[in-house]
Design goal:
By secondary structure, the protein is an all-beta fold. Helix content is 0%, strand content 28%. Strand 4 and strand 5 form a beta hairpin.
């Protein structure tokens, strides 16, 4: 799941219900127009549109694989990713 909470306090997320096994590359994008997309193993698996963009530095910083500083999405506190993450690259355009 890729989730963004914007200044309007609305959370927008994209994800897949597919069961994923083995090693894969995942790409999550937030475009300047608010479009969110998630690509898994070269295949686009989800898209959505955020109502606006993040206008200020979030109080709860970026977290990958868990959400420990207070839940920002519609999930329980038992939400840790159980696999391994080799790398995270953030590209700002």
């Amino acid at each position: 799941m890729f989730l963004v909470r914007t200044s309007s306090d609305a959370a927008t997320s994209v994800g897949t219900s597919e069961t994923i096994t083995g090693s894969h590359a995942a790409f999550a994008r937030l475009e300047p127009d608010g479009k969110l997309s998630l690509t898994l193993a070269g295949k686009n698996v989800a898209n959505d549109q955020a109502p606006d963009l993040i206008e200020a530095m979030p109080v709860d910083g970026l977290q990958v694989g868990s959400d420990e500083g207070g839940l920002v999405g519609p999930y329980s506190s038992e939400n840790k990713f159980n696999g391994s993450i080799d790398s995270v690259i953030i590209v700002l355009n």
